Amino acid sequence: MPDSGRMRPDARAWFEHRTTSATSLAEIDVDALLLAKRRGGHRVSVVLPARDEEATVGTLVRDLADRWVHGIPLVDELVVIDSDSTDATADVARAAGADVVAAADVLPAHGNRRGKGEALWKGVAATSGDLVVFMDSDLLGDVSHYVPGLLIPLLTDPRVDYVKGCYTRPLTVDGEHRPAGGGRVTELTARPLLNALWPELAGFVQPLGGEYAGRRSALERVPFVSGYGVEVGLLVDLLGVCGLNGLAQVDLGTRQHSHQTDAALGRMAGQIVSTLLARAERSGLEPGGLLTQFQHDGERFVPSSTTVATDERPPLCAVPEYTAHSAGVVG
Ligand SMILES: O=c1ccn([C@@H]2O[C@H](COP(=O)(O)OP(=O)(O)O[C@H]3O[C@H](CO)[C@@H](O)[C@H](O)[C@H]3O)[C@@H](O)[C@H]2O)c(=O)[nH]1
Ligand SMILES: O=C(O)[C@H](O)COP(=O)(O)O
């Protein structure tokens, strides 16, 4: 039976002390945040990787620019990294107020690879803020509070180097809408693997979520996996660089995005498996047997842990009672 009491103590302590909430603008003291930004002499870059996102990137960029560039000056640089789009992503994003940089034009001597992680790596290279906020370009609805929400831990606690967003994820597939249940690769691949191999990270509610922020000083010290393995790669590698207490998460409320096909999610899961197994092999890790999952109770995420370690029986041909019996039967 699930039992939150059985969550690994270090993961549980991290979850309790390093999870904060910023589910809407009403919950955020933006003036205090701006003051902290000015006092600390910080510069904030927002990086949005985008591949063929003409349908969504315009509204997102306009919301962010209106609120945090032209309104309250929390963001100094709003950059869309055009990841080899074949649609009007670049024009739409530029018209909405972003600086648009083609991934292929950044560090050209290093070539141009495919994938989201490549766009993020180029995004860090192309910007200059000491604090970098990442957001996907296919987000739906007004999510402009994500930016200050992700910045709070970085602007208010010098021990925090990296902040992951977490959220409830509705799922709409084939016209059927469910208020939660999104993040299928997260639940079926990333979470079980991360729990097995890096149990101290079990408190992360959304290890794959595309909204997170970090100090450049940390981000420039870790590799960026070029494809969809980038989020789990960053989590594991930043754990090594910053330690568990250098990581934090913030509940941003709800996240809706465009869903990919099952076949595409299978390929994404494959990249995540490959990213994590490569790191586990390098570190010689043995899998553990506890899985922590989360449910939102209306106020907060509630963890519940289950033993998933497997037991097994030997081949029957090695069981004397069986071989004696089956010899008798055959004979
Ligand atoms: O080659 C690519 C592929 C994607 N993207 C952009 O990356 C973002 C996320 O990509 P998407 O294909 O929408 O991923 P999801 O299906 O939403 O996958 C989830 O899981 C992924 C794996 O961890 C994360 O990278 C995502 O942020 C997270 O939302 C979007 O803005 C894309 O336009 C690129 O820039 N280049
Ligand atoms: O984060 C994930 O697991 C993938 O983006 C899939 O999300 P979805 O199930 O909401 O499409």
Automatic annotation (TrEMBL):
Boundaries of every Glycosyltransferase 2-like domain copy: 45-146
EC numbers on record: 2.4.1.266
Sequence similarity: Belongs to the glycosyltransferase 2 family.
UniProt keyword list: Glycosyltransferase, Magnesium, Transferase
Name of protein: Glucosyl-3-phosphoglycerate synthase
Pfam families reported in the protein's UniProt record: Glycos_transf_2
Superkingdom of origin: Bacteria
Catalytic reaction list: an NDP-alpha-D-glucose + (2R)-3-phosphoglycerate = (2R)-2-O-(alpha-D-glucopyranosyl)-3-phospho-glycerate + a ribonucleoside 5'-diphosphate + H(+); (2R)-3-phosphoglycerate + UDP-alpha-D-glucose = (2R)-2-O-(alpha-D-glucopyranosyl)-3-phospho-glycerate + UDP + H(+)
Enzyme class, broadest EC rank: transferase
UniProt GO MF annotations: glycosyltransferase activity
Organism annotation: Modestobacter roseus
Cofactor: Mn(2+); Mg(2+)
